[in-house]
Write a structure and sequence with these properties.
9 strands, alpha+beta, 5-stranded antiparallel beta sheet, two-stranded antiparallel ribbon, elongated
Length: 337
């Protein structure tokens, strides 16, 4: 099935904080709310405590994490009825890739170059992509979310809609505390538990977060080296191809068959050239031994992009054509000299 987004529905909170969270929540499943029969919260906490201690979480860590924790009504409100807006691709890009973000991204790329370039070489990910993700996710670290992660995850895990998924995320968060990477007070994030300047869910933290400065802590909240290396490691582990870019906008021939669009349709650049595709400025496609797919994030009649393997890798961060396209375009503009 071809996945085309002619319009995108986004919550206003995600427009501010970044777009990564939706892709991470897909794995959590859905289902109707199970209001009736939800276990008393204090009894539920005791059950989680028993499970956590059985997994090696100390009583001291658990008790400190849950001190004063009660269900957070605002979290349930946001989970139940997120305010939505409908955006075209052009509107989305205007919000997510404005000139001000490009300018700030260039400044920060230059300011952190001595840190970013070694990380880029180590993981094979160009610094401009690390900075682009950082900018889109948290506006370069300015918007980390204001919810206590343990409280938010406990609220969602107890609620019943996606309890199994969020219970596992809660246990991962407790492991992060047990290992001393952050304190409960400093462990803040989004209403759904996405944390730090890279907005990792706890499970992603466990898999991909990096202690770049080797101080014994993987600090994606306040240590820039850890933030950048963690994002680069995520992309590298997700299949980033060093030496390749994400894609480019292209011009389609007048008689282009829409059946050729979609990530499942892959052809070599020479084949696309023979079918009449050209760069956006009308020039020939690169003469490279690469394959790509044509995607139409804004639907038929909108801009067309010839995308490569790294576009697919970005979509493992967030499975949205809008998001992946924005990351690529922002990275390109940040990297312009």
């Amino acid at each position: 099935m071809k996945w085309r987004e002619s319009r995108i529905r986004l919550t206003t909170t995600r427009i501010v904080a970044g777009a990564m969270l939706a892709g991470m929540l897909v794995a959590g499943g859905g289902g109707a709310a199970q209001e009736a029969g939800v276990e008393d919260f204090s009894e539920w906490v005791e059950g989680v405590r028993s499970e956590a201690l059985g997994l090696g979480i100390s009583a001291a860590t658990f008790d400190a994490a849950f001190a004063g924790i009660e269900p957070i009504p605002r979290v349930i409100e946001l989970d139940r009825s997120q305010p939505e807006v409908t955006l075209t691709l052009a509107e989305y890009l205007e919000r997510v890739v404005p000139g001000s973000r490009v300018a700030q991204g260039r400044e920060l790329l230059a300011a952190h170059r001595d840190l970013l370039e070694p990380i880029g070489r180590q993981y094979g990910v160009p610094p401009r992509f690390i900075v682009a993700l950082w900018g889109i996710e948290t506006s370069f670290g300015r918007y980390l979310g204001g919810f206590p992660v343990i409280g938010a995850l406990a609220t969602l895990a107890h609620d019943g809609r996606r309890s199994a998924y969020f219970r596992q995320e809660l246990l991962h968060a407790l492991r992060i505390l047990e290992d001393g990477h952050i304190t409960p007070e400093a462990m803040v994030g989004s209403w759904a538990g996405a944390m730090g300047q890279s907005q990792f869910m706890p499970s992603s933290f466990v898999r991909y977060a990096v202690d770049h400065d080797r101080d014994g802590r993987r600090d994606i909240w306040g240590t820039q080296g850890d933030v950048f290396a963690s994002a680069a490691n995520y992309l590298a582990q997700a299949g980033w191809r060093p030496g390749e870019t994400w894609g480019r906008q292209v011009r389609l021939p007048d008689a282009f068959d829409p059946a050729h669009t979609g990530l499942e349709v892959k052809k070599s650049l020479a084949e696309w050239q023979a079918l009449g595709l050209r760069r956006a400025d009308g020039g020939d496609l690169p003469q490279a031994d690469m394959s790509g797919s044509v995607v139409l994030p804004g639907g038929e009649g909108g801009p067309a992009y010839l995308v490569y393997g790294n576009y697919r890798t970005i979509m493992r961060w967030n499975r949205s054509f809008y998001f992946a396209t924005a990351v690529g375009l922002l990275a390109d503009r940040i990297g312009e000299r």
